[in-house]
Amino acid sequence: MSFSPPQYPPPYGPGYPPPRPAQGSPLKVVFVLVSVLLLVVALVVNGLLFFGTLFAGDSCGTSAGTQRFCDGSGWESVAMYGLATAAGLIASRVAARVLLIGADTYSTIVDPLDRANAVVFGDGAGAVVLRAGHPDEPGAVGHFDLGSDGAHEDLIMVAAGGSRWPYADGGEPTPAQRHFAMRGREVYRHAVTRMAASARTTLQRGGRKTDDVDHFVPHQANLRILHSVADDLGLPRERCVANVDSVGNTGAASIPLALADAAARGRIRPGDRLLLTAFGGGLTWGSCLLTWPSLATHPQSERTTP
Amino acid sequence: MTSAYEELVGILTRLHDAPADLIRSEATLGALDVDSLTTVEISIRIERDLGVTVGDDELQPDLTLGEIAALIDARRATTV
User: Fold this and answer.
1) Are A72 and A86 a contacting pair, CB within 8 Å?
2) What is the ipTM of this complex?
């Protein structure tokens, strides 16, 4: 029996391409897309420069064998999942080095008139280079914990975001459906309990105790959440790295920016033991252990926030 | 033994910067300017530290600290 390859291009039937919504001219759509793209590129480049001073040259090290890498923050936990994926690529020798970028542009999805959210979220980007290394060198990444619970996806979401609202499903979404929405009180409770549990699980997997943590670097959601998790873990609040007061919640960039900020201030030094914990939409969460790498760091020359 | 009221004040003072002289048994959460997220945090800590469940939806602004302490005691009595 002979094999006949499928026809290419495939024979599209009637109704293809699907009708586009009447609102908005194509030019406007292109303009918006290009604007968003430029904004993302600008932020990413900005973030790279920002982190370039921190991870110049060699980057945070990760070992190939049993050690893995982490960073992160659902949106906010995406970077954490990305880090675990990158570490897997290195450990399995699919990649020798991985450039991992965490970026979020909340200004494109938050309603500026939504006071509860508009004052909390910020745009940001951060990046890190991962490479194979040794478990005992500064920069080695330890154990991970990753988790998710899709039953609570509606707590943090853009109702008409991504592919959730295809045009074919009926009509143009309302402005409210296009904007970011969060049920704050419920999210707060989940964040505190999930982050603390994830941090504990990671410490347990790594055979570490709370006292072994020099710096706790949580997703920068809200200072009260950070302190609540630190209190629950029995960690002095002074060991909790926080910069939410100056940059807000920057989602996937949150933990990278907090790390860069702390390193630039000389608060985190090579060999320090860090526990990172993220929480975000999905719901998703994750934690990991790492030691801070030996890198040429330069003090931040200029802050763009007070 | 520490009373539920003292434990509640211990939780509140760790979270909230209300002046000590205003923290009295008859002070309401509203009078102490306790906001909604702090209410959630108080609820979490009552459960975490005292082992009883008082939902944040129960901690209404017109509730006094004394009434909340009584609620904790009542829940303890039913769970023991």
Assistant:
1) no
2) 0.84
